[in-house]
Design a protein that fits this description.
The complex is a heterotetramer of chains A (about 625), B (about 500), C (about 325) and D (about 325).
Chain A lengths: L4 H16 L35 H37 L1 H16 L2 H12 L3 H28 L2 H9 L3 H37 L11 H10 L5 H29 L50 E10 L10 E10 L4 E5 L6 H8 L7 E11 L5 E3 L5 H7 L4 E4 L3 H4 L6 H12 L4 H14 L5 H5 L8 H13 L5 E5 L7 H17 L4 E6 L2 H7 L2 E6 L2 E7 H6 L4 H8 L47 E4 L2 E3 L4 H4 L1
Parallel strand pairs in A: 3-8, 3-9, 6-7, 7-8
Antiparallel strand pairs in A: 1-2, 1-4, 4-5, 9-10, 10-12, 11-12
Helix pairs in contact in A: 1-2, 1-9, 2-3, 2-5, 2-7, 3-5, 4-5, 5-7, 6-7, 7-8, 7-9, 8-9, 13-14, 14-16, 16-17
Chain C lengths: L1 H28 L4 H5 L9 H11 L5 H13 L13 H36 L4 H15 L2 H15 L15 H35 L2 H8 L4 H28 L4 H7 L4 H10 L3 H29 L8
Chain D lengths: L6 E13 L6 E14 L4 E5 L6 H8 L7 E6 L2 E2 L5 H7 L3 E4 L13 H11 L8 H11 L16 H14 L4 E5 L7 H18 L2 E6 L2 H7 L2 E6 L2 E7 H6 L4 H9 L49 E4 L2 E3 L15
Parallel strand pairs in D: 3-8, 3-9, 6-7, 7-8
Antiparallel strand pairs in D: 1-2, 1-4, 4-5, 9-10, 10-12, 11-12
Classes of the chains: A alpha/beta (about 625), B alpha+beta (about 500), C mainly alpha (about 325), D alpha/beta (about 325).
Membrane topology (chain C): Multi-pass membrane protein
Protein name (chain C): ABC transporter permease
Organism (chain C): Jiella sonneratiae
């Protein structure tokens, strides 16, 4: 809301000036002083005098009255009518839609100026005909926008819920639909006000505007244009007022948009797309010989990673970066250490908000721009034997690895594939980005890959667009992209979550096949489904609220969890014949409100005073297992 | 695909633009040899020879057509197709034709002329002078070069009709909107709404004329743009110089201005409605307005005050003693209002138009002054077409109007002050002026110059008294041109829109 | 697809008929008599008899339904009638004027896209930065300055003072191609200014939206170069809604370039329409409006089809 | 039981017209085809099947939110198609719905209390003065804090919202609730909370419930009777324990095999059902499952098998119905 302060206060000042104009110590708006026409600024007339010797400042302020009330009046009137038409048409559809939205669209076929011309000529120039003309002009816009928004909202469950409740349709339209189509409507209103001010000036210019001697900015511009040579400033003042006001309304509109729909404007755009000067990029952290895992800054047990690791993450901390913004520095992932050996499948499991996805994104430098790695290292052994700290790589360094040595499979293949690019092209693109292959060669290889991931009729599918494939096939194509360059490390982020059971089983089987084909490939499998973990992973890392709480071999952990959270998770799965499931009370604390001690303590049945005091260190109940619980010995 | 295409096209366009800039202004603004580039204010709505289709159309008609008569640059009546004209002893006008040819090469005959008069005066004719021509009861053609017109009663003003640019002669049997005439230029090509191209007619009956090889008339509807085009060197001559630009053109030594006071602004009344059915109220209005301010505000000082009937002070019919008949005198105005029973003033509407800035500005100044004597005026400023209809139908109390008289003769004012004519937006609505009508009629049939002066002086006296209209100001009508344009003359007074006739003598130096 | 086009065409014909009827009726409500006007040119008094004669000749004395029937009948047989003013064929005039208007609009669109898409993309990539603010300020300014002000200033600076370009007007391409292009650039550039602002803003919003999409992250995860991600995965996807908006904007421009045509003396369709309304030239007005609405509807259809071509997810089945 | 069922669907079908080409033949795509199903008082019927099998459409039809193209729904003996307008809205009191998406099912702009109170107001369940108290009672019932009423949905987590949605559904004191995937969008620990809540409510309030889900474990846990759907048709219906204990239809068996389990450990070579569900626009002839069925033979293509009684209270639509030959049926 703070964003709105500037535009709203400017508009408030303008409106105050306009409303208070009659009581302000201004000159008479109609008083002519023809001998002093075109006089320059003076003490009596700050902005000079116009072609009739009238005070320009006064006319500017009174002109705002006409221009703004016409613009705001018509924008609001059109909003009310248009919204009513759009809501009714969008909710009831059918005949009502034809009579409302479609009928309003007839107006769009008429040239706007002709419409204004006809209305104003039929009714005579003046304030109200102008408002009417502009209202007619803008109504279809609103109707269209509200109609589109209504169509979106009417299918939502809370509208269905109202119908299921037996609420009267009109009440649903007014109470449920209207408030929810308001954001686009509000934005449109501020847009229309801006546009109406311009149109009013255009109509006044053509002599279709307000009737003199009432001033309006358009009339002032029209009069001044003729006298451009004699008194150019007369053109400047109303133009400035016009541009300034519209600028303010545009600003309001932009800000309103970002306040009503915060998702629409991410701060800072796309940092990764900006080309940085080569000198500015940090030197690549080649850590040959040195074992970074020994530099562990956080006190506690050493990480469970050895020299044979493909990847050793240590002390990974991810925080919100927002210069001076709220919550800057808030840690979303804290001090995570995991390692993956070649050929091993590591599952990272946790609920939403546990930081499991962020961890995998951090490895490839794909964190959202608002997040950054503030501490830690991730040593990766590349194909050529170099040891790279993935967290220290810059965008270019990451780009060389991504899709080649390290590749990713995302959760929602439907969203993750480019909807307007053919599957084959999306595949050959990744091949050609890392290998010197010709288009034809890459195309052939793409088809082979599709065949390899079990897509029937791969020749034809290569020419298909993602939406022409079924969900399972899309995920297969996504996997084909990931394995196209035979990666050393595959990061799979919830690859089966949105799929049906039989398709999920197929995809899991495919992943098993691929691992069998590439025995050296390490896999990090991010999921929230414990059962999937049991099926596919060698080792599992359980994350909670941004921290790693337990890690070890899958079979052992499922057989005997050594952290209350893991135990509760397993107990909450509705398998076995338990009458009641183990439900963990409460919810995961939001990142800004982490408890001081063990983060799970508030929801833990076994928490004691000591748990709430300090963050527990890692314990090793067994050589290859870790847990972050003070009381693991007693409670598990 | 789209992106690439766009980029390529854009590059091509900008490259073209770049090379044009490089060529520089000379190639763009080079004067064309012997062809005058004329900036018109409007495209002729039609080429109907006899209909009143506006001043731009008038100019075009004066290029391609010639009538029996015309006005000389000094404003005097002169013969065109007619070599001589006189009233015979029976009171009929006899025109002797000269040896002229139509642009198709055939000779102009008396029969052609007779046919013109007959066609234009037909009941279903739309000729501007149809009413006047219908007073010609008979046209005789005793031989190929003699035309004799017989009128119901003798008419002193008949030759003036045939000098009107809305009464040119066309070849017998041609369509009324033919562009084939006997004038100095042939219309070669038109681009409707944009331009007209004329070339010299080598068979023109005046030897050595026209001096120009051709005329290219281009329409610039926007007055500012018209001036800009002249200043930019795109054209050689423009009509309707806007008043705000006159000084600028005068001061520019690359240009010259030829301006005369001719057209005038005035107020008309609705004589069918109170309070303007009362002459006292009308006269109060006449005294309430300070005309200098109209000249200053609406015409940038380009014109003169007009506090009597629009008879120019250079005219033989000018009456110096009546010149201040409606002089600015707010006290007198208030007194007249009080006498008429409106001591506290009243509310009314004033019709003008927003389409023409001068009409609107004039109305605004009038409104300001009328409010000072208690007449609260609400402006009604529709576009021109609606204004015309409202004027014709009397849908107003008070209206601002601007025009020229038909010619410099006081009879040319008939349209404006003769209340016996049918309702029209150019005159007051429903206002009976029996005395004025009587004087006008008398003037028309009087041939003696001195007697006519007396008649019209009496008429003006009555007009000042009864105030059928209120004269406001003369406005300057100007042509702007390059210094090398010679021979073009802005004709005096009401004849300014006849200036096109001098294009036959115009040359590019 | 064919079926869709056929369906839309039927709707379009109905729509155009509604528009034509509406305009026909509205026109007869508008005060001002064509015959009277035609004979009152130059502020002269029209002879009532002459006016009556002309009314009869123009068929204005017929009852309204008969005039309407004549009109619609004419349209159905492909005859748009002739001008009240000089009897010029309305269809012929439209054929002459329309290309000029389209020329301006298309040139303006090309300029606007060529300048607006990069500007919007840049602003999106630098969202919140000073580049973004400058572009946003400029586009607001472009949107808020009336074309007649821009036009006047352009003429003053470039034609009157610098004398780089002619002061408006029109020359046929065949007569003088260079001059034609120069004259075209004035109105097209002015129209492009506002259009540029719209395109830049739309592009910015659209690119920002696409940047947030998962498939861009996928493209990054594939290790593609910045340029390829930007062109193939961001801008290409972002352009789909931008082109739609561009199409619709162009649709409104077909009859909406009056001021620009006036200021630059460009003899296009909009100016023709206004002069026809001014003269109450009914056949011309109705004819022009019909053509404009057909074009508008057609353009909408084209936009939809192009949309479906650009975005394979959209199916035109109905 | 001789009592009439609370809700009874008979021969329900729902199709959507589809045309191909300009003069193309008009075809119907069946989302639901000839489904008969009854829910008794206090009974929980679970419907499972993969996306596109028609289970959600069935749920919405059962509530009268969507009109069936054929067949009838009787609620408490009254045919829903026969009532409309205000009477229909009055009947809505007795049937409510809980939706899948906890973010889409609540109006983001109105307070939680107001949304729960909607049902109370529309049907005048309690006098105006007691609405606040009743809202508080409902909020308490679903295990939320009292102060929740004044807050907006965005202040709640997914699980809490789903509780709010349940409270809203309960406000009208319904007899019958359709819960369409009520837990599938929730995290595991939260999912358990809601599953427990629904189980408690059914037991304590004696609600009849139609529980739609694709997770076999959840359905098995919550319902007394299970319905398995494939391509718009019921393929197996019977007591939940027995259907999932020893499935008789090969599809049910495949579904179970495909569902991963934490207790089974790492799968080695399990039978993965090949292919995908055919498009409803172009269903196979005969048994619609035959294209993926390991047991399919030529006769399966001949005719659509009947939903035939298999054991008392257990019906199967398969000519080869019977217990699995393999021992691999899990869990």
């Amino acid at each position: 809301m703070r964003k709105l302060v500037l535009p709203v206060s400017i508009i408030a000042v303008i409106l105050a000036l306009v409303l208070l104009a009659p009581v302000l110590p201004l000159a008479d708006v109609r008083a002519m002083d023809i001998p002093h026409r075109f006089a320059g600024p003076s003490m009596q007339h700050w902005l000079g005098q116009d072609e009739f010797g009238r005070d320009v400042l006064t006319r500017l302020i009174f002109g705002a009255r006409a221009s703004l009330s016409i613009a705001i009046g018509s924008a609001l009137a059109a909003a009310v009518i248009g919204a009513a038409l759009g809501l009714l048409g969008g909710y009831f559809r059918g005949l009502v839609e034809i009579l409302t939205v479609r009928a309003a669209e007839v107006i769009l076929c008429l040239p706007p100026l002709l419409l204004a011309l006809l209305v104003v000529t039929i009714l005579g120039a003046g304030f109200w005909p102008l408002i009417l003309a502009l209202t007619i002009l803008y109504t279809p816009n609103y109707a269209r926008i509200v109609y589109a928004a209504t169509l979106q909202v009417r299918g939502l469950d809370y509208v269905t819920a109202q119908r299921a409740l037996g609420t009267h349709p009109l009440k649903i339209v007014l109470r449920t639909l209207l408030p929810n189509v308001l954001p686009p409507l509000l934005v449109q209103i501020s847009l229309v006000i801006a546009s109406a001010i311009v149109i009013e000036s255009g109509l006044s210019f053509l002599g279709l505007g307000v009737v003199p001697p009432t001033p309006s900015w358009g009339l002032m511009i029209r009069a001044a244009r003729g006298a451009m040579e004699q008194a150019p400033m007369l053109l400047v003042w109303p133009s400035l007022a016009l541009a300034g006001t519209i600028l303010t309304f545009n600003l309001l509109c932009d800000r309103l948009q970002s306040v009503l729909d915060p998702r629409a404007v991410p701060a800072g755009g796309a940092i990764w797309l900006r080309r940085r000067k080569p000198a500015a990029s940090p030197p690549r952290a080649v850590l040959a010989g040195e074992d970074p895992v020994n530099r562990r800054a956080v006190a506690g047990t050493p990480p469970a990673a050895g020299p044979g690791d493909l990847l050793a993450i240590d002390g990974l901390t991810i925080a919100l970066r927002r210069a001076g913004g709220i919550g800057s520095g808030m840690e979303l992932v804290r001090d995570v250490a995991i390692s993956v050996r070649p050929g091993e499948t590591l599952a990272i499991v946790g609920e939403s908000g546990s930081g499991k996805t962020l961890t995998s994104l951090a490895l490839t430098g794909l964190l959202p721009d608002v997040l950054e790695v503030t501490a830690g290292s991730a040593v990766y052994v590349a194909r050529d034997g170099r040891r790279l700290d993935l967290l220290a790589e810059d965008e270019d360094g990451h780009r060389r690895l991504r899709g080649d040595e390290i590749s990713m499979v995302f959760q929602d293949a439907n969203a993750a594939l480019n909807p307007v690019q053919r599957i084959g092209e999306q595949l050959s693109e990744v091949i050609r980005a890392h290998r010197p292959a010709g288009a034809a060669e890459a195309g052939r290889e793409a088809v082979d890959l599709l065949r390899r991931v079990g897509i029937p009729d791969p020749d034809r599918r290569a020419r298909a667009y993602p939406h022409e494939l079924s969900g399972g096939q899309r995920q297969r194509a996504m996997i084909a992209i990931a394995v196209a360059n035979r990666p050393k490390l595959l990061l799979a982020d919830e690859p089966t979550t949105a799929l049906d059971p039989t398709i999920q089983a197929q995809i899991l089987a495919l992943l098993s096949d691929l691992r069998r084909d590439s025995p050296e490939m390490g896999v990090v499998f991010v999921t929230h489904n414990l059962a999937v973990v049991a099926e596919i992973a060698d080792r599992v890392a359980v994350m909670y609220a941004g921290e790693l709480v337990e890690e070890g071999p899958v079979a052992e952990i499922f057989a005997r969890p050594r952290h209350p959270y893991t135990a509760a998770l397993i107990g909450s799965v509705p398998e076995g014949g338990a009458e009641r499931l183990v439900a963990i009370p409460g919810t995961v604390p939001p990142p800004g409100k982490m408890p001081p001690g063990c983060r799970f303590a508030p929801r833990c049945d076994h928490a004691e005073k000591v748990c709430r005091q300090a963050s527990p260190p890692e314990f090793r109940p067994q050589p290859d297992r870790r847990t972050r619980c003070l009381r693991f010995e007693e409670v598990t | 695909m789209t992106m690439r295409l766009t980029r390529r096209t854009f590059l091509a366009t900008s490259a073209a633009a770049g090379s044009l800039t490089f060529l520089g202004p000379r190639s763009l603004h080079a004067a064309t040899n012997g062809t005058l580039r004329f900036g018109l204010s409007a495209y002729p709505p039609s080429f109907d020879a006899w209909a009143s289709s506006g001043t731009a159309a008038g100019t075009v008609k004066l290029l391609i057509h010639r009538g029996l008569m015309s006005f000389a640059p000094d404003g005097s009546l002169r013969g065109e197709l007619a070599e001589s004209w006189e009233v015979d002893d029976q009171g009929a006008w006899v025109f002797k034709l000269r040896d002229a040819t139509w642009q198709d090469g055939s000779p102009v005959t008396a029969e052609d002329i007779a046919w013109n008069v007959a066609e234009a005066s037909k009941p279903d004719s739309t000729a501007f002078l149809r009413g006047q021509l219908q007073t010609i009861t008979k046209v005789e053609t005793p031989d190929d070069t003699t035309v004799r017109m017989i009128t119901e009663e003798p008419s002193a003003v008949l030759p003036g009709w045939f000098a009107h640019y809305n009464m040119p002669m066309i070849k017998k049997g041609e369509a009324v909107d033919t562009t084939m005439g006997a004038g100095p230029f042939k219309l070669d090509a038109t681009d409707r709404g944009v331009s007209l191209t004329f070339s010299a007619f080598d068979g023109y009956y005046k030897k050595g004329l026209p001096k120009l090889a051709g005329v290219k008339a281009t329409v610039y509807a926007d007055e500012n743009l018209r001036v800009a085009a002249l200043q930019a060197g795109d054209i050689d001559l423009i009509e309707y110089v806007p008043w705000q630009a006159m000084e600028q053109i005068e001061q520019n030594d690359q240009l010259k201005l030829d301006a005369v006071d001719g057209p005038f602004m005035y107020l008309t009344f609705n004589g069918k409605r109170a309070p303007f059915d009362d002459p006292k109220v009308r006269r109060a209005v006449a005294h309430a307005i300070k005309r200098e301010d109209i000249v200053a505000a609406a015409f940038y000082g380009r014109g003169g005050t007009l506090a009597h009937l629009p008879i120019a002070d250079g005219s033989a019919f000018y009456n110096p003693d009546l010149a201040d008949g409606w002089a600015y005198d707010p006290d007198k105005a208030k007194q007249l209002l009080a006498e008429a029973g409106h001591p506290d003033g009243f509310d009314c509407t004033m019709l003008s138009t927003a389409q023409y800035g001068m009409h609107q500005s004039t109305a605004e100044v009038c409104q300001a002054y009328l409010s000072m004597v208690g007449i609260n005026v609400k402006l009604d400023l529709p576009e021109w077409s609606t204004r015309v209809q409202k004027g014709n139908q009397g849908d107003y109390d008070l209206a601002v109007m601007g025009t020229t008289a038909a010619n410099n003769d006081p009879d040319g004012l008939s349209d404006i002050i003769d209340g016996s004519l049918p309702a029209s937006f150019v005159r007051s609505y429903g206002l009976e002026t029996p005395e004025i009508s009587g004087y006008l009629k008398k003037g028309r049939t009087t041939f003696d110059e001195q007697k006519r002066k007396e008649i019209y002086a009496e008429m003006e006296k009555v007009a000042i008294e009864t105030t059928p209209i209120v004269g406001l100001c003369w406005r300057s009508q100007g042509y702007g041109m390059k210094p090398n344009v010679t021979g073009f003359t802005n004709m005096p007074g009401q004849l300014t829109f006849y200036s096109g006739v001098t294009l036959e003598e115009t040359a590019l130096g | 697809m064919l079926r869709y086009v056929a369906y839309r065409s039927i709707v379009a014909i109905f729509l155009v008929w509604v528009v034509v009827t509406l305009v026909f009726l509205l026109l007869h409500l508008v005060p001002g008599d064509p015959a009277e006007l035609l004979l009152s040119q130059g502020a002269t008094a029209a002879d009532p008899q002459a006016v009556a004669n002309l009314r009869e000749r123009l068929g204005l004395n017929d009852p309204l339904w008969l005039q309407y029937a004549h009109h619609i009948g004419g349209i159905l047989t492909g005859d748009l009638g002739t001008s009240f003013r000089d009897g010029a064929s309305v269809a012929g005039q439209i054929v002459q004027r329309l290309p000029r208007t389209l020329e301006v609009i298309i040139t303006a669109a090309l300029i606007a896209v060529a300048a607006g898409v990069p500007a919007g993309t840049l602003a999106a990539i630098r969202a919140g930065g000073w580049v973004d603010n400058v572009i946003s300020f400029l586009s607001s300014l472009a949107l808020s300055t009336p074309v007649f002000v821009v036009g006047s200033v352009v003429i003053l600076v470039f034609a009157q003072e610098l004398r780089i370009v002619p002061a408006g007007g029109y020359v046929a391409f065949a007569v003088d191609p260079l001059r034609h292009l120069m004259l075209l650039l004035l109105p097209a550039g002015t129209v492009a200014l506002a259009l540029w602002a719209v395109i830049a803003r739309m592009s910015r919003a659209s690119v920002l939206d696409v940047l947030e999409r998962d498939h861009v992250r996928t493209a990054r995860a594939k290790g593609l170069s910045r340029r390829r991600i930007l062109t193939r995965h961001v801008v290409r996807n972002a352009m789909i809604p931008v082109l739609t908006v561009l199409g619709l904007e162009m649709g409104t421009l077909i009859g909406g370039t009056v001021l620009v045509e006036f200021v630059f003396n460009w003899p296009g369709l909009s100016g023709y329409l206004v002069s026809a309304v001014d003269a109450r030239d009914y056949p011309e007005v109705v004819g022009i409006v019909m053509v404009i609405s057909i074009l508008f509807v057609f353009l909408n259809l084209v936009v939809d089809v192009v949309y479906a071509v650009l975005d394979p997810r959209i199916s035109l089945a109905r | 039981m001789t009592l009439t069922p609370l809700v009874e669907a008979e021969g329900l079908s729902r199709n959507f017209p589809l045309r191909s080409g300009f003069f193309g033949a008009h075809r119907d795509v069946f989302a639901v085809r000839d489904v008969s199903l009854s829910v008794d008082k206090g009974e929980a019927v679970g419907v499972v099947g993969e996306s596109g099998c028609g289970k959600s459409t069935l749920g919405r039809m059962m509530l009268g939110l969507e009109r069936p193209t054929a067949g009838a729904i009787r609620f408490d003996g009254r045919d829903l198609s026969g009532v409309s307008g205000s009477k229909r809205r009055a009947l809505a009191r007795r049937m409510q719905m809980v939706f899948q998406d906890p973010f889409g099912s609540l109006d983001p702009r109105r307070s939680v209390g107001a949304q729960i109170a909607d049902g109370l107001r529309v049907h005048r369940i309690v006098p105006g003065s007691k609405i606040d108290a009743e809202v508080a009672r409902l909020i308490d019932l679903v295990g939320l804090q009292r102060n929740a009423a004044g807050r907006r949905p965005h202040e709640f987590s997914g699980g809490q919202r789903q509780r709010i949605a349940v409270a809203r559904a309960l406000a009208t004191r319904p007899d019958f609730i359709v819960a369409d995937e009520p837990v599938s969008a929730l995290d595991v620990s939260i999912q358990a909370q809601v599953v427990n809540l629904l189980a408690d409510l059914r037991r304590d309030l004696g609600l009849a419930m139609l529980f739609i889900a694709h997770d076999l474990h959840v359905v098995r846990h919550l319902s007394t009777r299970a319905v398995v759907m494939y391509l718009g048709r019921i393929v197996e219906e019977g007591p939940a324990d027995r259907v999932f204990g020893a499935p008789a239809h090969p599809y049910t068996r495949a579904l179970m095999a495909a569902t991963p389990s934490i207790s089974a450990g790492r799968a080695k070579d399990r039978d993965v059902l090949s292919g995908e569900m055919p498009s409803p626009a172009d269903p196979p002839s005969g048994c619609s499952f035959r294209t993926r069925c390991p047991l399919a033979s030529a006769e399966c293509a001949a005719a659509v098998p009947e939903l035939a009684p298999y054991e008392p209270g257990w019906k199967v639509r398969c000519i080869k119905a019977g217990p699995s030959d393999e021992a691999g049926a899990r869990p």
